[in-house]
Amino acid sequence: MINFLNEANNIKDELVTIRRDIHMHPELGFEEERTSKMIKKFLSNEKIPFISVAGTGVCAVIEGEKVGDNNKTIALRADMDALPIQDKKGVVYSSKVSGKMHACGHDAHTTILLGAAKILNKYKKKFSGNVKLLFEPAEETTGGAPIMIKEGVLDNPNVDCLVGLHVTEDLDCGKIRVKNGVVHAASNPFIVNIIGSGGHGASPHITVDPIVIASTIILNLQTLVSREISPLNPSVITVGSIHGGSAQNVIPEEVVMTGIIRTLTKEDREYMVKRFKELIDNVCKGFRAHAEIMIEESYPCLYNDEKVLDRVRKAAKDILGEDNLVEQKNPSMGVESFAYFANERPAAFYFLGTKNVVKKTDKPAHSSLFDIDEDALSLGVALQCDIAYKYLTTM
């Protein structure tokens, strides 16, 4: 049996070098030109074939060379993009690009997938079937996953299951966290333009005030959450911005609100979108105004497949020990573009701990001080290798 943790520790210095290089050169969604070139150079050096997808994304395949009847394919996915945040860490590998930073760990995800590729390719004579490597751009924005799927990354060879991971600063390094069922919420960003009729602030009776209407709508939207969705299924409606008016003594003609609806089931998502439109239209009608409502069908819910997740659990127990496997009770209301893949094939998504108070890697993701305990890199590589290898070598 291959000791994947030893194999990963043997390339730990290389992993740290790769991660720091990516961290110092962050790129935003669909701008990951340098990162993409680095990934392709690495794969070329390992003689792993690849293609470009979704602009800056990469899809590679490791073909097992062991003779056998197994023609299964497992895909491992990593995201590549950074965030528009100024890096304020005082470390030698801080971002060299002003206003851009890997503040969510995608540099670690890419590094882990490259490390797994190196080791699995080394042992490809020991398994049949295939390992697909998916490097996804733009996870932080629109998600590169839908484009990758449309361009056929789950076909030729057909992907039977997928596994993804995400580093997290709220779990100690050396542990992973898993969850049955729904892991992340679905999101529906919205823009609502409320159109009334403007006029002088001293004569509100001859206007239709969109600011008052917007205020009424914002308050009433919360009743959709508290009175129309089961309290056992969390949902969130956030109005993140409201813009209208230009002077103290003028009632404007229009107000624009933007925000996001978040739900945890397909049924709640459909119902919430329907009732959101109905409530706004009826409030506006009551005030003699009308609304233009635009709701985006964004990230779906992320569901973990029980059988694939059990493989993650088994790998964690073998490599980290049972005490370092944490079961998550509640889903996150955040979104994750891995959900697009998980809606197409059985999949599992888990969280890799990177917290270390002494190393100051306990700062929140999407903050200017975010960092990871780099000891987690080899752990992530070992886990991904173990999951993929055992999937292709056991029934």
Automatic annotation (TrEMBL):
Coiled coil: none annotated. InterPro entries: Amidohydrolase, Bact_exopeptidase_dim_dom, Peptidase_M20, Peptidase_M20_dimer. Residues 191-285 form the Peptidase M20 dimerisation domain. PANTHER family: METALLOPEPTIDASE, PUTATIVE (AFU_ORTHOLOGUE AFUA_6G09600)-RELATED (PTHR11014:SF63), PEPTIDASE M20 FAMILY MEMBER (PTHR11014). Pfam families: M20_dimer, Peptidase_M20. CDD domains: M20_Acy1. This is Amidohydrolase.
